[in-house]
Design a protein that fits this description.
Elements (H helix, E strand, L loop, with lengths): L4 E5 L3 H12 L3 E5 L3 H20 L5 H9 L1 E4 L10 E4 L5 H14 L5 E4 L6 H6 L7 E6 L8 E6 L5 H13 L3 E4 L8 H17 L5 H11 L6 H8 L1 H15 L8 H8 L14 E2 L2 E2 L2
Parallel strand pairs: 1-2, 1-4, 2-3, 4-5, 5-6, 7-8
Antiparallel strand pairs: 6-7, 9-10
Bound molecules: nicotinamide-adenine-dinucleotide.
């Protein structure tokens, strides 16, 4: 099927990146968030990212203007009615996502594909709350979306083969590398990454080394571009905790228990970069100290 118009629900750090790469690839993008401020921030962020590409001569001024003109902002889900594909990127919470999928199922045309950018939640479960489980799929982008090449494409148990093929092809059109992954808790990327981050938080919790030292060990000892604690701050500690909880619940294996320090930090509202305070403190987006 032809996908021309794409809805993106949730204009947070993932949603705005997804909207940007879709618009750059020529899709009409309807970006929807219940919070008007998030929409304003999202457009500012896309503008900033496109300016960066412009200054590096990677795109022209008219490329930038065309991309921006393809993105419209909305607060009402009914605006998704004529989309060919809707990608949801709201909070990582199964109950809230299921509620959204039920609503999308009611407002979107019958042919519309409903996709989730969830980091860990069962796509088969999200599919099951709709009347079109065969048209539901996971399209899991990495953060930051404009820079990261990998996209996990996750068919639910119920997904039709042609829906998978259409979404796999769309990811390629975004100049990304799709990888098919089975619908198991955390899929593949976060099954590997988030327990490693959780273990780094245990190291901090047990006083084995400071946050800065733990990140230095990963960067210089394992050649990681970013240390696990700086990466946790980028992902959002609330999202990291939700993923650990999905892994723990899904596998019933104690190796996935979230570190108590991670739980405590989320309880305290220290969610990382998005609240300017996580394992590091941030001023104007830069880690201090
Ligand atoms: P975020 O907190 O930055 O943004 C979420 C946005 O969704 C907010 O702007 C919020 O206002 C909006 N929202 C919440 N409920 C809504 C609703 N019912 N309708 C409309 N808008 C709603 O979160 P994020 O980091 O962008 O993560 C979004 C999703 O992407 C999550 O499922 C997360 O697991 C996944 N994800 C995150 C990362 C990451 O590194 N942060 C990477 C890959 C996937």
């Amino acid at each position: 099927m032809d996908i021309l118009t794409v809805g993106v629900i949730g204009a947070g750090q993932m949603g705005n990146g997804i909207a940007q790469v879709l618009a750059q690839a020529g899709y009409q993008v309807l970006l929807c968030d219940k919070n008007n401020l998030a929409l304003d921030k999202a457009i500012t962020s896309v503008d900033k990212n496109l300016n960066y590409l412009l200054n590096k001569n990677l795109i022209s001024q008219s490329d930038k203007e065309r991309s921006l003109s393809r993105i419209s902002c909305h607060q009402d889900l009914t605006s998704m009615a004529d989309c060919d594909l809707v990608i949801e990127a709201i909070i990582e919470n199964e109950k809230i996502k299921c509620e959204l999928f039920k609503q999308l199922d009611e407002v979107c045309k019958a042919e519309c594909i409903l996709a989730s950018n969830t980091s860990s939640i069962s796509i088969s479960k999200l599919a099951s709350v709709t009347q079109r489980p065969n048209r539901v799929i996971g399209i899991h982008f990495m953060n930051p979306v404009p820079q990261m090449k990998l996209v996990e494409v996750i068919p639910a148990l119920q997904t039709d083969a042609d829906i998978f093929v259409s979404c796999y092809a769309l990811v390629k059109k975004l100049n990304k590398t799709p990888v098919k992954v089975e619908d198991m808790p955390g899929f593949a990327a976060n099954r590997i990454l988030i327990p490693m981050i959780n273990e780094a938080i245990f190291c901090l919790h047990e006083g084995i080394a400071s946050a800065r030292e733990i990140d230095t060990i990963s960067q210089l000892g394992m050649n990681h571009k970013m240390g696990p604690l700086a990466l946790a701050d980028l992902i959002g500690l609330d999202t990291c905790l939700s993923i650990m909880e999905v892994l723990y619940e899904g596998f019933k294996d104690s190796k996935y228990r979230p570190c108590p320090l991670l739980v405590q930090m989320v309880n305290a509202g220290r969610l990382g970069r998005k609240t300017s305070h996580g394992f590091y403190q941030y001023l104007d987006g830069k880690a201090q100290g």
